[in-house]
Task: structure prediction
Amino acid sequence: MTERRAWRLMLALLALGFLMLPLSQALFGLRLTYTVRVVALGGSLLGALSGAVGCFAVLRRESLLGDALSHAALPGVAIGFLLAGRQLGALLVGAGIASWLGLRLVAAILRSTRIKQDAALGIVLVSFFAAGIALLTTIQSLPDASQAGLDSFIFGQAAAIIESDIALLGGIGLLVMVLLALFWKEFKLLTFDADFARADGLRSGLLDALLSTLVVITIVLGLQLAGVILMVGLLIAPAIAARQWTHSLEQMVLLAAALGAFAGGSGAVISALDSDIPTGPMIIVVAFALVLLSITLAPGRGLLWNQLRQRKNRRQLRSRRLESGA
Amino acid sequence: MPTAMPEPGEPALLIDDLTVAYDQKPAIWDIDLEVPRGALMAIVGPNGAGKSTLIKAALNLIPRAAGSVLFHGQPYQAARGMVGYVPQRGSVDWDFPTSVLDVVTMGLYGKLGWLRRPGRREREQALAALEQVDLLDYAGRQISQLSGGQQQRTFLARALVQDAQIYFMDEPFAAVDAITEAAIINILRELNKRGRTVLVVHHDLQTVAEYFDWLTLLNVEVIASGRTSQVFTLDNLQKTYGGRVSSLHSGQILTAGGGA
Result:
């Protein structure tokens, strides 16, 4: 059930992505500094990872859960700093723990109260984020100079990415992809029909936790680049765009990875053209431009396609009525 | 996963003292139910009677407040390979990006076990099941293009490849066309002929006696359970539906407010 147009689109995106750096160098006089390369590479890796993982979040209708989890990471960054100082590892572990606690809290609220899911997500998102802001503000007033720039986790600061971060992104990204491949059929069944999966003897609790953990890991890895507020955009936009072009989950995940990589890389390159354009938001803008293009143009599902089909149907009906002499 | 073997002599399903409560209000109360092997049983009752809850609790999909459930004498953990399930059609997103054949193949994932991918054998089994439900031509279709009846038959085919000893089907006849209804009842009879036990949540009183040889009337508690010929009486129906069943003569049953 794979569709050729989705493969073609994937190839085009990858080709365009690879040509992006030399092209923008030739056309716009982009200066290919070391930083630009590192940020573009980091953006692509993160985009690919969050595109693939985001497909499951979107299909499980957990887009907003992703948003709550990324906001919930903020107090973890602050506490990580207070405990271990400014080490990226400590900040990310803190973010991961806070985000994971947010996830458990949403589940606990849903299980033990009558509060509905949207309200539960709102509670966790706002309370964790507010706590994070309060902690960060307190930390800012500390006499220690090393806290400078900690607030970049709110909106993300791509320029802070260095070569060792790329290795981290690449390594963990690879691990996540391997896990997705190993448990592919289980994740697919769990996402499509969780009750059947459980009745059929699947360890659904374990797999559910694993899938959620992959989402949390992806979010945490993206915080430095996109920040807690915008990270969910990179998680869901490639998946939503990819869904428009294909009816196969395999293709959707691959295409979302390609779209995410393209958005991450090209957003970084565009923001490098002018020092006033922030990278994280630019990447999200590109990602949602891809969403807009996809829901407009994609054959079969796109809005433009629907319009054309409706017009054609109307014309056919009219001519048939004329023929029958009505 | 080792295939569970049925214990000889034990009933297909033995439910003892099963209670499920949502917010302290019992959804099903103190259910005792024994289903003999090879029974084709309808579970019938008004809205909110706990029919789906009973099935889900038996399959461990929702927490039980009390009670035990044995499949061929074994607890759920040991009996997993023996149990087949057809959930309500509306419980999944039919816009999920996958094909009909793929959904049917999902019924084989449990037998495949971890890390193994479905191959040619699984494909052939899935295609055979699709032929049984008369959907072979739709194997490659995207599932969002199916009609309600075709969706239901896809779910049925997925249950068929599970090759279970005891099947639980949640409202398979709800809002399907006549062709699908006939196809489903043919499959049920075929399963029955092969000695499988089938429990069906059903809500059309008109067809109960025609389709099912065993019947459980449920309204939070079990009102009556046994052979349809003995259980399907006006008196029992009135107890189940609270007096809203007005007549049972000439095969016509009238329930106020639409029955189900």
